Structures are given as C-alpha cells and as structure tokens.
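Predict structure. Chain length: 259.
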Amino acid sequence: MNKLNDQLKELIATFKSLRDPNNGCAWDREQTFKSIASCSIEEAYEVADAIEREDFIALKAELGDLLFQVVFHAEMANEEGLFDLTDVIAELNDKLIRRHPHVFSNNNAISASESLTIWEDIKAEERKNLKYDSLMDDVPRNLPSLTRAKKLQKRAARVGFDWPSSKDVMAKIDEELQELKIELEADNRENISEEIGDILFTLVNLTRHFDLEPEDIMRKSNLKFENRFRAMEDYAKDNNLALDTMSLEALEEIWQKIK
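Prediction complete.
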C-alpha cells in the first residue's frame, strides 16, 4: 500500500509540474475541463480496444493514460477549490459500500443478477433524493448512441414500460420493418431515416432482453467484417486480382470462400 501511495503522490506531483504557471508545459497549462473531455473518451476507447485485442501490455499503458485523465480533471478541480482526488476516491468508495449492502451489511450471498438489481434499486433511490423531473434526466447525452438507447430503455422498464418478452420485441421489429418498406416505396428520405432509427432502437431492446451489450455486438461485427475484408484483399493479391475491377458477383464469391 505504501508503494501505491508513493506512486500516486509522485503522479500528482508530476501533474502539478506540468501545470506550473512558470515552468510547466504550455499545452497542459491551457487545458480546461471541456477541452480535454474528448481525451477522456478517447482513452476509454483505447482501453476497450486493448481488451478486445487481449493486448495486456497495451492495456497497462492505456489504463495509465485513462488514470491520468482522472488525475487531470481532479487536480484542475482542486485548482479551482471545487474538490480534489481524495474527494473523488472517497466518494467512489462510499458509493461502492452503499450499493453493496449484501457484502458490507448483511453479508448475504446472492447471484450476480440479484446484485445488479440491488445496485440499480439503490441508484434509483439516490436519484429520487436529487429531485430530478424525469427518470431520463441524468442519462448522459454524449454517450455512444447504442449505449444511451439501452440506458433510456432500462429507465423506462423500471416503471413497467417494456415488452414482457423477446418474442414481443421481435414482433415489433417485424412491424418496424414493414413500416420501413412503405417509406422505401414512397422514397421519403426523412421518413426512411426515422424508420431505420426505430428499427435500431428496437434491436437494442432485443439485446437488452438477452442481457447483451449492443456496443460489444457492433464492435465484434465490425471486427469480423474488417478481418474478412482484409482476407479478401489477401486472396486477391495471392491470385493477382484487383478487387476494384471485379463484379459484385465475383466479389461475393470470394467473400463466401473466405467465410
């Protein structure tokens, strides 16, 4: 623990040197909460990418970069007298203990799904104390769209506004597809966009009924497509073919071979 404390103190000291008004780094000195908000998002995605690739050397580095973003924001807040890193850690620790009563209070062994339900119930009670006007008020608007769709649906489900089963969701998907076909016939671009949005939103609901993460699903599909297309390019090179001169039928034939 002492080593961890020492490393954390050294990291904070390094950051303070970077922000020093006289001898610090010009770029670090001029940053604000808003100016580096996108950096925090970028670093989180790079952590996810390292995990996806199972590159644990890269993961260690990317986690460090993400930690620096936490330190950056906390210390900028400290400069303005708002809070500091100690406050951030204390609030996190308090929240973890508060939302895990089955661990820290009654010590009842429960399943993972029951644990998640307790977490969400306590979180909902905390929101009531904040006196939001809507269940939707604290769902961040800048979340990735699929993730935000799932969060919005989970909030609505807490008051019973949800399809009871995946079969009901599938029926809704069929209904939305039929509506899309009507708009395609009418060639109404705005309505086509809206119907595609409805289909995507309902597909997210389907993933929720199977306890799947839509972002993970889409990321894996992207990776699968990318790998197969790269394999197509390799196949074309090995056989002295140029993909951009081939017909769609010929490209599909290679695609099926790769699959």
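Summary: The first helix runs from residue 2 to 18.
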